[in-house]
Amino acid sequence: MLPFSQYDAHGHLRHLITLEGMTSEQVRELLDRAQRYLRRPGEIPAHGRSLAGITVGNIFTEPSTRTRSSFELAAKRLGADVLNLEIQLSSRVKGETVLDTVYTLQAMAVDVFVIRDAEPGVCQYVAEHVAPHVSVLSAGEAHLSHPTQGLLDALTILQYKGGFRDLVVAVVGDVRHSRVARSAYQVFTALEVGELRIVAPDALMPDEGEMPEAKRFKTLESGIEHADVVMMLRIQKERMAQAAIPDAHDYFARWGLTKQKLKLARPEAIVMHPGPMNREIEIASEVADGPHSVIRQQVTNGVAVRMAVLETVIENRNRRWSPPR
Ligand code: CP
């Protein structure tokens, strides 16, 4: 059996499981396409018919507001039908396996599965078993990967900073448990960000050897000094075996981003956060809602990026596969 690839035999994207190994050209193609779907605030969102007749199935076994809603809106705005499997009301709770669930929905003509799962490897496992015309898109896999988040983060930086090579980007907080940080690392290294920093207390730093191209900083103050982009991360209590951090007040005192601490970054620095935020734990409301924050633009960009990814995999499918007559 051939090793798994998210690309088809022609080298075109069929699944999106990870950003690891993506070239800058591949990333930029997706970002260029996403930019076509951005509109100014208040304008009617972009619509199209490129997914007419296609069915997108969302299977989320972990909670989500942004990713699930934006995949749904992205698919609908391009003319697709969308099925949101309510996992707690599904036959998964009676013991049906993920693969049997997928085969069942595939038999109802679901063409693209959007999967979020706490278990590493589920997205790839499903991708290895679906029919040749079907695609799998990761909506977040354990602590490992959140590729569309990485793309929307890159798009946001491009929008505000116009490029990547001259930037100092600081990724701050619970890097160890963060799939957002891993996808950010992959996309920022592909795009050759000038200086990439990971900034975390020892307990929340990834293992030595992981993220080798990033510089490590062990205080918030040193890590964000002269940064152009400060990306704050959520404390992921659900992925910690036991409390690896001191209490919330102490964490906020040392690691919470306040207006005062943000003065250490460049005056025109942008502040990002993937959401959901723990306000007054990793980020103060005065920053989250303040003039440097681009957090809501990240959400807007998420819809455009997911439109671009859905359209790309369907376009690639149409190039390699015609339905039987
Ligand atoms: N950023 C992100 O993945 O948010 P959700 O968990 O709400 O989808």
Describe the structure in your own words.
This protein is α/β, with parallel strands linked by helices. The chain folds into 2 domains: 24-146 and 300-320, Aspartate/ornithine carbamoyltransferase (Rossmann fold, 3-Layer(aba) Sandwich), CATH 3.40.50.1370; 148-294, 3-Layer(aba) Sandwich (Rossmann fold). The protein has 11 helices and 9 strands. The chain has helices at 24-35, 66-77, 98-106, 122-129, 147-161, 179-190, 220-224, 248-255, 259-262, 285-288, 295-320; strands spanning 55-60, 81-85, 112-117, 135-141, 168-172, 195-199, 215-217, 229-232, 270-272. The strands form 2 sheets. A 5-stranded parallel sheet has the order 7-6-5-8-9. The protein has a 4-stranded parallel sheet with strand order 2-1-3-4, with helices on both faces. The longest helix has 26 residues, at 295-320. The structure holds phosphoric acid mono(formamide)ester. Residues 64-67, 140, 149, 274-276 line the site of phosphoric acid mono(formamide)ester.
